[in-house]
């Protein structure tokens, strides 16, 4: 009897120790997330499923506004309670993120273009993987298909040049009631993809952001100036007093250059008024490239649970879960294999799904500099300064040479200051 009691006692003690050990091994990760739509809600759902499959790891998703991310991260540092994971798209500080390469190996890194990882490395010999892009905002043209059909003009081929597109657009306007061939807001991130396609190079030999000094940017700005003078593009959009999208949804312009983040809004505003589509970026010496603003998942260097964080990344960035995230959030994937294969977007609007997949098909065509640009530490300043100076150019207050020279001077002052 004593032996039986002793065995029961030992088993009870062992079970208690095992339970205590399991409790000690369980971790809760804190994830600071911003969203443009429902991204954080989708992450919460996906991570609940992850925790069911990994009972020792719980992930709390803390939602904040995009403009509050840096403030919230700083407050967490000050309180000595840093977040383990953050979703962000700006304010990068070298040395502040976990190198996930040793923890994840090559399985995930090979599904992304190398330039994404190079952006956060400081030294040439660094092979670290400090963040992964989970979604892209892509720029490409919206086109009014109904106007092409009314004019009896065939949509240019996927590889059509800017010259071919401008000729086709001009023909459509001449045969219909449309007023303008093209509209684009005076926002330099919307002018950059045509400039890059036409040959502009925005980085010098040292990898620093600079103003293109040859073809590309100058060529496209002169094209726009010529269209304004000919009355073929609305001047107010380039002067900052009008919105290009309004001209497009009213059916007044044939082409509208903007981004994937506008697909749902355009669909809502156009309704059944006319048929529209997203077309490949017109080509030039630099190919046909859009511009991509990436949103990223990064792991804080001060996390106490790097292995658990790596498991979360491995799960979220896997093929099936990553595709589901894109499908449910109506975002463009950064993974080129998923972008090329197409996403089964979860929307009742077929036009939105078609538009987003058209944007996704542009991902493999991105120039590396079109990915690097928005990660540059000077990008925000460059956009703000260029919007002001290019507005002066389109208003006739500055010549193109004067506007570009002042822009270069201001950019140099910030870089060297």
Task: Give the end-to-end Cα distance, rounded to a whole number of Å.
Answer: 84 Å
CATH class of the domain at 2-136 and 293-351: Alpha Beta
Major sheet summary line:
8 strands, mixed
The helix tally amounts to 19
* Topology pattern, helix = H, strand = E: HEHEHEHHEHHEHHHHEHEEHHHHHHH
Ranges where pLDDT stays below 50 over 5 or more residues in a row are: 5-24
Explain this structure to me?
The protein is of the alpha/beta class. Among the domains are: 2-136 and 293-351, Periplasmic binding protein-like II (D-Maltodextrin-Binding Protein, domain 2), CATH 3.40.190; 377-417, no CATH class. The protein has helices at 2-25, 39-53, 69-78, 101-104, 114-118, 145-151, 162-175, 188-197, 217-229, 235-238, 244-249, 263-270, 306-316, 319-329, 336-341, 350-361, 368-372, 379-394, 400-416; strands at 27-34, 57-64, 85-88, 131-144, 180-183, 253-259, 276-278, 292-299. Strands 1, 2, 3, 4, 5, 6, 7 and 8 form an eight-stranded mixed β-sheet that branches. α2 (39-53) links the parallel β1 (27-34) and β2.
Can you describe this structure in just a few lines?
By secondary structure, this protein is an alpha/beta fold.
Protein traits:
D-Maltodextrin-Binding Protein, domain 2, 8 strands, 417 residues
Explain the layout of strands and helices.
Blueprint: H1 2-25, E1 27-34, H2 39-53, E2 57-64, H3 69-78, E3 85-88, H4 101-104, H5 114-118, E4 131-144, H6 145-151, H7 162-175, E5 180-183, H8 188-197, H9 217-229, H10 235-238, H11 244-249, E6 253-259, H12 263-270, E7 276-278, E8 292-299, H13 306-316, H14 319-329, H15 336-341, H16 350-361, H17 368-372, H18 379-394, H19 400-416
Parallel strand pairs: 1-2, 1-3, 5-6
Antiparallel strand pairs: 3-8, 4-6, 4-7, 4-8
Helix pairs in contact: 2-14, 6-7, 8-9, 18-19
